[in-house]
UniProtKB/TrEMBL annotation:
The lineage of its organism: Eukaryota, Metazoa, Chordata, Craniata, Vertebrata. Residues 464-579 form the DALR anticodon binding domain. This is Probable arginine--tRNA ligase, mitochondrial. Pfam families: DALR_1 (PF05746), tRNA-synt_1d (PF00750). Belongs to the class-I aminoacyl-tRNA synthetase family. PANTHER family: ARGININE--TRNA LIGASE, MITOCHONDRIAL-RELATED (PTHR11956:SF11), ARGINYL-TRNA SYNTHETASE (PTHR11956). One of its GO terms (biological process) is arginyl-tRNA aminoacylation. It comes from Gasterosteus aculeatus aculeatus (three-spined stickleback). GO terms for molecular function: arginine-tRNA ligase activity; ATP binding.
Amino acid sequence: MACFFRRRIAAQLGCTLQQPEDAFIPALAAVPVFKKQQSADFKLSIATLRMSGILPSSGDIQLQAESLAARLKRDSVVEDVSAGRGVINFKVNRKLLVQKVLESFGKEEEGQFGLNSELLNTLTRGTTLVEYSSPNIAKKFHAGHLRSTIIGNFIANLKQCLGNNVIRMNYLGDWGMQFGLLGAGFAKFGCQEKLKQNPLQHLFEVYVEVNKDVEQNEEMMQAARAFFSQLEQHDSEAVSLWQQFREITVDEYQHVYKRLGVHFDIYSGESFHQQQAQQVVQKLQSQGLLKTSEKGTGVVDLSTAKDMSSVSTVLRSDGTTLYITRDLAAAIDRKEKYHFDEMIYVTDKSQAIHFQQLFHILLAMGHSWADRCEHVPFGLVRGMKTRRGEVVFLEDVLDEARARMLRNMNQSKTTKETVNPEDTAEKVGISALIVQDFRGPRESDYTFDWDRMLQAQGDTGVFLQYTHARLHSLIQRNEGVAAVLFDPSHLLEQTSVPVLQHLLRYDEVLYQSAKDLQPKHLVNFLLKLCHLIASAHRELPVKGSSQDVAQARLRLFSGARSVLANGMKILGITPVDQM
Ligand code: ARG
């Protein structure tokens, strides 16, 4: 579809300017649709052609556009060519537009629309390891962990649909002094019964209690240190308690992740790398990279002048390793085990320096693949609260989203007959959370707002789901009418053409998303699609139209539904069929 037209335009440009046609593909883009039908479908950026050296970079850009536009032919595919501001606009034959877009709905397998694109084929494919979510055992699952979970899941889904081999990894905070506190605290405040009944809640309670206790109670602090050192020396009793904490935590999380539609191939964690971390320290030493600071800690000098003006601490003065030391070991281990071509870490932006230092040290150690490691940072969420107060567990947010959505559904007359309202409310509630989170630039902070995100109208996840459910029921009601053959001339209306024009951008949107790993492009594309579908739905009735008009319209709606559904799945949203 989009490729057909892009190729065709590129071929003509290639001929006219005596250049390989591929050189023009990056400069061609589908024109974004605003409200009404757009007169142009594609535009060519003159600035891009100047940058790539195809056109001289001196001279008036407007004159260049005009003179090139005058040299291009109009034909049965490209009906009109005109110079705009710094661009050349192309209008393709309307019937062909309808035909090509609708054809590709049918030809390509469900879920494949737009993926067979020369633009997407320029992306490198390989093994991508995405590390996301990564909560800390016994601590809060805060908004940052929720963002990491859904953004990481989006990136993994996107990479997978673009043909990469994706490894999804959760790197638990399952090591460190907090386990000394937890182990010692459990002896005093813990209860096996409660641990079985409500593991996350109980571990958190114990952790809070013991933290209060150590403030007045020096003995407790000693017990905690003793427990952690037993753990480090692999004392079997300490290890088995720690293992129990870890296992029940992972079990609980798996259950909640399932509700969210998220899964992991590997549950790793800091604990896996404590011994390797010591080996990393030795390696740093033998490479001459380990320095001793005035405080007696082991550091790596990161300054360009090599004057210790910027250092990263990798060893405490008591010889124990730190978060970054374990991350160094973990990265090296993952490269050896999974041979990734790229690795992506998704955490809030406060860890940006940590990851810069991590990659810097890896490179200094000679691991050139650290260049293909990327930290994907995101901003903070303000005010994520439930009726019970501050959020401690992921489950609380999901429960609240479901409850609020269920109430909204009950208040609206149209949703009375939903078959499984709880399940629908859960899926729609989660899509509301996701869309709220994905609308803006990833690095921006935002304020969590239950009422706004759950609005049925407006740019919300509820609106996406509502549109999907509506299309689904339209298609179901008219099952008998659908046909493979259709006449494109029935889809040339003011409200149908913009839907098709908009769909021409789908591969560009995925391309852009793969480049900058921002979910906002796809979310905004889908929201726009839903607005265009709403107008088309209003003005192009299926019921009461003649058979061939009805067939053509249904074809448009069912194609749009499948693109919407696929896009939603990439975002990590499960489309509902009714609500
Ligand atoms: N557990 C950490 C936290 O909650 C996040 C881990 C991020 N990943 C990493 N490889 N350091 O802050």
